[in-house]
Design goal:
The complex is a heterodimer of chains A (368) and B (355).
Chain A lengths: L2 E5 L7 H23 L4 H10 L5 H26 L7 H18 L9 H27 L3 H21 L32 H19 L1 H11 L1 H6 L4 H28 L10 H11 L4 H25 L3 H23 E5 L18
Antiparallel strand pairs in A: 1-2
Chain B lengths: L1 H21 L7 E6 L9 H16 L3 E6 L6 H12 L4 E4 L5 H10 L4 E5 L8 E6 L1 H15 L3 E6 L4 H17 L4 E6 L6 H13 L4 E5 L4 H9 L2 E6 L10 E7 L2 H12 L7 E4 L6 E3 L8 H16 L9 E2 L5 E3 L7 H5 L8 E2 L1
Helix pairs in contact in B: 2-9, 3-4, 5-6, 5-10, 7-8
Classes of the chains: A mainly alpha (368), B alpha/beta (355).
Chain lengths: 368, 355
């Protein structure tokens, strides 16, 4: 008997929105089994993992703080992914943004009253991220170089640049030769909201996907991006420029990642350190797909991924669950999502059984 | 002024007695939290801190309960985890990596009732102490062995050029050059604390450049394994690494945090905890040397024992003059020794280091 995979004819438009909740539910159930098998009380561990972080204002604020950079970067990346432009280097663009913002902050460190300095840092960060994304954009549109490789490799250049700066010229002169910059002054730090670590930057990070949603839905540019991604030939015929779209989405993704970098160094970190991002640029790729590349889907997706980190810590503190279990839960979440997407879009057809597929069975390959 | 001082000390004494009475019992144990920079695993920096935690837990029994969070990044995540340990009711929190210094300071300012212990940094507050280990003393002992056993070129796999690592390279080289004035230390920076692949590559290229002994200031056993495979010697780091290269391992510098954790936690339970800045070494048992390996020669063994005993007794100062830098200029005059302050900022190399 042969088994064939074929696409379902009538895939519901709602389906992409049904599978994520299903994947979450499956993850919770499977996690409970894994926790129990590891010898941890499943109910208590599940509670610590998925519920406890949602129960206090402080930890909700922490959730938003962790999700902020993820949703903002993912929203930018998703716009590119829809146009079939694969910017994998948001991590480096974020780092470059942070370097640019930090450079402004350190250059004017003596002036701790200037109102213009925070906006200047943000502008510098956006430009920094854009410059870093412009390199793959230029190479792709001019020479046809694959942007996946260039954007990814530039990430390492960015992080080594940061390293050499904080080990070298930007090292805190009073810092015992440790690799960190000075702490930014008060005028260079985003004010925190209501006794939490949430800043204006965090709030803006959540507004960006909403703004992008409005723009991509109601503007011609949004249609252009979608058209170039779905049907490049048709888009060309309609007079849409592919290289203009490449530039547009890469600059958008790079600029937003750069801005996220500024919000991190001017927010919860408050200085330049050798490692400013715990992988936000890469995790944002997962968030973008988990959120169905849709600005409004990205917000819950970002919050969910952030919850998996916070929950992992809470479970470590509360029940002693090892850190590796957090990775396991995150992995299961992705697995179930991909698997349920697959099942939703394809079906298995057994040769010999009745199939909706009317194509004639492929003749057996002749011995060639 | 005097009355005020009296008043404060009276309040403190009363507070302490009250705290001592209230603090620890089996039904309501004193809660201690730990923040770890890596996964615990079965060797290395975080493993040794966890061994310290377990030893403290064993020593103090039901009077304490401990919690930890492992693999916490040194960026924005650290502050969240520390705050979480505070809201989880921990009364004493150890943050065990340099990158936690500023986050710990911020949480300490916001939580004056909780006491904090921060490893390898330099900022203290009334409720935040610093502790560190004089790893360089162990390096000096290794240097004495290397001086006797190497033909003259040793490879050093180093993580980041921060003062602690620079100090280690220098102490090692100085001790070896006392035995062999032509001794050279070749350094390769791998820019990581733990990456077996890169550490192993660095080790191989050092051997190719003529190194007959490898030292490491990174966390994985890759350097020792490479040394064993290539038939040269090596020194382990953080934990006893002899099981990864029985013939190759001459000794390992072992971080032993247990005495400190026991001491400080006891003080916190009885309410006598006060902020401090501690730098312990071989004498206090914070730096230990694993048993000498079977390959260590009689002569090297005697030199190592002697160096260890004299460092513990305070009669041998690893950074006593005369010390010249790489260009041959005298940095520390004969008869002088470097102060702790100078050591903690060290950013230059001694003669004989090729970094």
């Amino acid at each position: 008997m042969r088994i064939r995979i074929e696409s379902r004819r009538s895939a519901s438009r709602l389906l992409p929105w049904i599978t994520p909740p299903f994947a979450v539910a499956a993850t919770v159930v499977a996690s409970a089994v894994v926790f129990a098998a590891m010898g941890y009380a499943p109910a208590r561990t599940l509670f610590a993992f998925f519920v406890a972080p949602l129960l206090s204002v402080q930890s909700l604020a922490e959730l938003a703080l962790k999700a902020g950079p993820l949703v903002m970067i993912a929203a930018g990346l998703a716009t590119g992914f829809r146009a079939n432009v694969w910017n994998i280097g948001a991590e480096g663009q974020l780092t470059m943004g942070a370097i640019a913002a930090g450079g402004v902050a350190l250059a004017f460190w003596d002036d701790d009253t200037a109102r213009w300095i925070l906006p200047a840092m943000c502008v510098a960060a956006v430009l920094g991220g854009m410059v870093w994304a412009a390199i793959p954009a230029f190479l792709k549109t001019r020479f046809g170089v694959n942007e996946i490789l260039t954007s990814l490799m530039l990430t390492y250049v960015a992080s080594l640049t940061l390293t050499s700066l904080v080990f070298g010229p930007w090292k805190d002169p009073e810092g015992f030769n440790f690799p960190q910059s000075r702490m930014f002054n008060d005028a260079e730090t985003l004010p925190a909201v209501a006794g939490t670590r949430v800043t204006i930057g965090t709030i803006l990070s959540f507004l960006v996907p909403l703004g992008l949603w409005v723009v991509t839905r109601y503007s011609i540019v949004g249609f252009e991006i979608k058209a170039v991604g779905l049907a490049p030939a048709a888009a060309r015929y309609a007079g849409f420029s592919e290289s203009r779209t490449v530039w547009l989405v890469l600059l958008l993704g790079g600029g937003l990642a750069g801005l996220a970098g500024a919000f991190e160094v001017a927010g919860p970190i408050g200085q330049l350190i050798p490692q400013i991002t715990p992988g936000y640029g890469f995790t944002a790729i997962i968030v973008a797909f988990l959120g169905r590349l849709h600005p409004l889907g990205i917000i819950p997706a970002g919050l969910l991924v952030a919850l998996s980190y916070l929950g992992g810590e809470a479970a470590q503190v509360d029940t002693g669950l090892p850190r590796a279990a957090t990775g396991l839960v995150q992995g299961m979440l992705l697995f179930f999502l991909l698997a349920s997407d697959f099942v939703a879009r394809y079906r298995l057809a057994f040769a010999g059984t009745h199939s909706a597929d009317v194509r004639p069975a492929r003749p057996k390959a002749a011995a060639t | 002024m005097q009355r005020r001082t009296l008043l404060i000390s009276a309040t403190t004494a009363f507070g302490a007695r009250l705290a001592g009475a209230r603090r620890a019992n089996a039904a309501n144990p004193f809660k201690v939290g730990f923040v770890y920079v890596g996964p615990i695993g079965d060797l290395g920096w975080t493993y040794q801190h966890d061994q310290g935690r377990l030893a403290m837990q064993k020593e103090l029994g039901e009077a304490v309960s401990t919690q930890y969070v492992e693999n916490v990044g040194e960026g924005p995540d650290a502050e969240r985890v520390i705050r979480q340990l505070v809201s989880g009711g921990n009364q004493l929190i150890y943050t065990t990596s340099f990158g936690y210094m500023n986050p710990t300071e911020r949480v300490a300012k916001a939580s004056p009732a909780v006491e904090f212990e921060q490893a390898t940094g330099y900022k203290t507050l009334p409720n935040m102490a610093e502790y560190n280990s004089r790893f360089y003393e162990g390096r000096a002992v290794c240097g004495a062995i290397a001086g006797h056993m190497s033909k003259g070129v040793v490879g050093y796999v180093a993580s980041f050029p921060i003062p602690e690592v620079v100090m280690g390279i220098n102490a090692f080289t100085l001790a070896a050059r006392k035995v062999n004035p032509n001794f050279q230390t070749k350094v390769i920076w791998v820019n990581t604390w733990f990456d077996p692949g890169r550490e192993s590559d660095a080790a191989k290229s050092l051997i190719d450049q003529g190194a007959d002994i490898l030292a490491q200031h990174t966390d994985s056993p890759a350097v020792i394994q490479t040394a064993e495979a290539r038939g040269v010697f090596g020194f382990g780091q953080s934990s006893d690494m002899s099981r990864f290269g029985e013939k190759a391992t001459l000794t390992s510098i072992v971080d032993n945090w247990a005495p400190y954790y026991i001491d400080r936690t006891k003080l916190a339970i009885t309410g006598k905890w006060k902020t401090d800045s501690v730098w312990w070494g071989i004498k206090e048992g914070m730096v230990q040397l694993a048993p000498w390996g079977p390959s260590v020669t009689e002569e090297a063994r005697a030199a190592a024992e002697d160096s260890k005993n004299r460092i513990a007794a305070g009669t041998l100062l690893p950074f006593a003059g005369p010390i010249k830098d790489q260009k041959g200029a005298v940095k520390v005059a004969d008869g002088k020794a470097m102060s702790d302050d100078e050591l903690l900022k060290m950013n230059w190399y001694v003669e004989g280091v090729q970094a």
